[in-house]
Amino acid sequence: MKLAPLRRKDIARCVEIEKQLFAGDDPWSARAFHSELDAGGYYLGAYDDEDRLVGYAGLVSVGRPGDFESSVHTIGVDEAYQGQGVGTALLRALLAQADELNAPVFLEVRTDNDRAVGLYERHGFTRIGVRKRYYQPSGADAYTMKRPARTAQEVR
């Protein structure tokens, strides 16, 4: 598996994975992915040995030097590739990008997604709140999680 900038030609595959993972809610559309890329977010694809997209992730950072803040907008991994380290690799790459900015990182995750919550906690995130009925139309709740900014010395 290799990580590389998400290619626009892979957006249709992202939408397929979204529908697989988030069928009970509101999966992202091709338009949403295009909009995120157009806005300059940091989006990565995870590609298998045949160069097929098996996962994707996106981070958006706002602010100015010394005062950046980052937010994980999405991480998705094809169900056939889950449990193989793809999500971990994508998350670590996003966190490395945030660390370059010395930015804290925020995200939302379904409260019933134990695998994802565990992944985030293993990477320094803590729960800071609950957003009731965050996911629609299912009405599932989300934890808001935060990982503090890391200095260059902490990252090494």
Automatic annotation (TrEMBL):
CDD domains: NAT_SF
InterPro entries linked to this entry: AcTrfase_RimI/Ard1, Acyl_CoA_acyltransferase, GNAT_dom, MshD_Acetyltransferase
Annotated PROSITE patterns: GNAT (PS51186)
N-acetyltransferase domain location: 1-150
Entry superkingdom: Bacteria
Keyword Ribonucleoprotein in annotation: yes
One Pfam family recorded for the sequence: Acetyltransf_1
Annotated SUPFAM superfamilies: Acyl-CoA N-acyltransferases (Nat)
Gene3D superfamilies from the UniProt entry: 3.40.630.30
Keywords tagged on the record: Ribonucleoprotein, Ribosomal protein
UniProt GO cellular component terms: ribosome
Protein name as annotated: Ribosomal protein S18-alanine N-acetyltransferase
